[in-house]
Design goal:
The complex is a heterodimer of chains A (about 350) and B (about 250).
Chain A lengths: L1 H14 L4 H16 L4 H23 L8 H16 L6 H24 L3 H21 L1 H4 L24 H22 L2 H11 L1 H6 L4 H27 L9 H14 L5 H20 L4 H28 L21
Helix pairs in contact in A: 2-8, 3-8, 3-11, 3-12, 3-13, 4-5, 4-6, 4-11, 5-6, 5-11, 8-11, 9-11, 12-13, 12-14, 13-14
Chain B lengths: L2 E12 L2 E12 L3 E5 L6 H9 L6 E6 L2 E2 L5 H7 L1 E3 L12 H12 L16 H11 L15 H14 L4 E5 L7 H12 L6 E5 L3 H7 L2 E6 L2 E6 L1 H6 L1 H12 L1
Parallel strand pairs in B: 3-8, 3-9, 6-7, 7-8
Antiparallel strand pairs in B: 1-2, 1-4, 4-5, 9-10
Helix pairs in contact in B: 3-4, 3-5, 4-5, 5-6
The chains are: A mainly alpha (about 350), B alpha/beta (about 250).
Chain lengths: ~350, ~250
Amino acid sequence: MMQGLAAVTATLAARARWRPLELIFWLGAVATLFVVPTKHLILTEVAILALFALSLDLILGYAGIISLGHAAYFGFGAYFAGLIAKYGIIAEPLSGLIVSALASALFGFVTSFLVLRGSDLTRLMVTLGVALVLREIANQLDWLTGGADGLQGVVFAPLLGLFTFDITGHVAYLYSLCVLFALFLLARRIVYSPFGLSLRAIKGNPLRATAIGISVNGRLIAVYTLAAAYAGAAGALLTQSTQFASLSVLDFERSADGLLVLILGGTGYLYGGLVGALVFKLMQDWLANLTPQYWQFWIGLVLVAIVLFGRGRLAEWIRKIRWPGRIGPGTAPGAPERSLEGH
Amino acid sequence: MAITLETLGLEKRFGGIIATSNVSLRLERGARHALIGPNGAGKTTLINLLTGIMPPSSGRILLDGRDITGLSAYRRVRLGLVRTFQINQLFADLTPLETVGLAVSERLGSGYDWWRLVGSKAPLIPEIVEVVERFHLTDVMHERTAILPYGKQRLLEIAVAIACRPKVLLLDEPAAGVPEAERHEILATIAALPADVTVLLIEHDMDLVFSFADRISVMVNGALFVEGAPAEVSRDARVRAVYLGEADG
């Protein structure tokens, strides 16, 4: 029994242990600061997209909430950060980012009640609807948001009062990477907590989750609010690094890109959005250089090919490396994950 | 004896169909009560009413004298009204250890604990290990639930419920579909359930019912038909006609 206790404690503790591949990933990320200084502008975009996809992973990969309108929270954070800077309320980027994330969380909390009910299809429509409505509101309020012209005249104070965002994008990249890493650490902590475990349980079988005393709605509201904060932070990063916000932050395409990136990299293990964002952006960049006119055709073709032929094997391969033999990560959407349920 | 679970005139109508009709049931603390009845008698609907999956059209449900009729399903679980499922309802991607651990941590109110890592709350571990061992899941506790043999999944189904420390346990055909070789393990664990837990067993298997129950209710067409000790029920001519007769034939 005593030996059993120690073994169990060790096994549970091992769930959250850092794996070598993770360390390599983040060392690689740090290395980009020095090795590829000319690529910092696009890498900033990668980091922002990665944070956005990470946010989606929290709800889709861990709680099973599928959304086609996650740009609503990205855009909310983006405009919020821009507006509080433009009107001189909070011009310092980091505090502006935190406040924007909190504001976006509040917006996420209010709208979370809409996604609680219904099937995946209902959720797709409701999330899509929320994003469309918000985009139209931003479009109509042109006295505030600049409408179709975008939010002009946004000026940020130096970061922490010390560093100015420059044209080379070094500061913006370092800042974005730090924010991404900090929020990643937090997300990693959360998914390995009892709360995180309960989310995976709800995703796996909400009926049983209820039957062991879990308030399914309560947990979904909590994680949706959290994900909205993450998306809001990503949006704020975009406004801060470009000193501009336009209606494109609320576009349907942004929601779709986030989903695409996440599914490209795989859901339910946190790195999917990060790896997916890197692959997606680099591929986009490379293809756009190769065939400036037809790059969307090629990127579409590559995505179809990857999703159809490559992802299953890739995910399986990653799984074997990360979780040798046990404690499987969440499965990708579409996988037969409810095989235990009879109905 | 104190009454743990009581229903008063419980009724459920779906349009014109009466699925549950004026059911008044009283379970004493520690009772081993079986609910039997032919298919379509309304046993499943009654369980859904008791657990809060659906609201009754009328009537009340009392747990330890407290009216729980309006409480949501998860709150009833928190109060000690726990069920198992006829068809396994488990977490395919979690291990038995994680599943039992989750149930224990939820019961102790750690469900919103988002900062502490799973397994770092030392006092929980002995209880988790104890439940895993008691239900013979030790050798598979690190496997994904999806790949466990069916018999082990049935055991886990009961183990999870026990980890919730039920006052009242609703066992919905616990041995359904279990291969003969693994059956005795299930029956032994059911027989060894803590004496202070009130058990309501819904079952088709008459051997199991008569070996387990000290009281039997027979349900027919949504209503309680006969209630009594096993010997009385088995002698009851009406019961033999509607139910046991069918089963024998």
